[in-house]
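1st attempt posting a full record on here, be nice pls
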Amino acid sequence: MADTTWDKTHEAQFGDYVELLKPRVMRLVIFTAAVGMFVAPADVHPVIAFASILCIAVGAGASGALNMWWDRDIDAVMKRTSGRPIPSGRIQPGEALGIGVTLSVMSVVMLGLFANIAAAALLAFTIFFYAVVYSMWLKRATPHNIVIGGAAGAFPPMLGWVVATGGIGIEPVLMFALILIWTPPHFWALALWRNEDYKAAKIPMLPVTHGTKTTRNNILGYSLLLIPISLAIGFTQIGGLIYFSIAVVLNIIFLLGAIRVFRRSDADNLADSFRVEKQLFTFSILYLFLHFVLLLAEAVLRGFDLAPTFPVLL
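the predicted structure (as tokens):
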């Protein structure tokens, strides 16, 4: 008689397939892509907008599945990821690869049909960049993995803009740059907090290869670089006085958090150090979310001619 205990224990449930697609990452992709589409200076039919966002979401999920398929060995080592569907045995690697490839092709083809070829090409490049350039190459090859690889997460607002307009302007480039430069301090704060995990998995994150002091210096440096990009958006046609004013406050809080992390040393109380790093990591999520909420609010106010006047310089 066949042993059914293993099958019942490891049988994949619907939630496992959802987890395979990295829904938390997908939510950010959906939101920033939708904002990029909504603030663009072009009208998009609601059906096309919904279908395009769905395609972008499926493409993001496909990238997540391919990433989990490739990283299954290191996911099994790290405490934070050991419970994922593949290392826990609930989904087989070949199945995850098949899902990732199928969803990738489907999302790109459908976006080309619903929106335009430029958007489909950019989505295909985004999936390739995350699954191949970042996951298969940069992540295990260089401590600058998250600096360059952050581009994959920065493409969604640009994708939304291209869906609406078919082209690129200064605004989507700045939205792209905002996420690109935000990514290193966001993830390095996590890397300091979860340093032992990355050491165990032998991933060359900056704290592992260059130590915590260098990582803290870089967090502060990138936080300073983030400020002019964030504020520059306020002087474009998608920004405005409300965006700029609140962005100033958000950048001050972010910079103060980065300075607190910068001032820490290995001699400090570890629990206190982790608390500071966790606070910066947590606030960084709110920081990025509020920037895009503000852009959305500015677009809505402009639609009702209620946006305060503000100079457009870029």
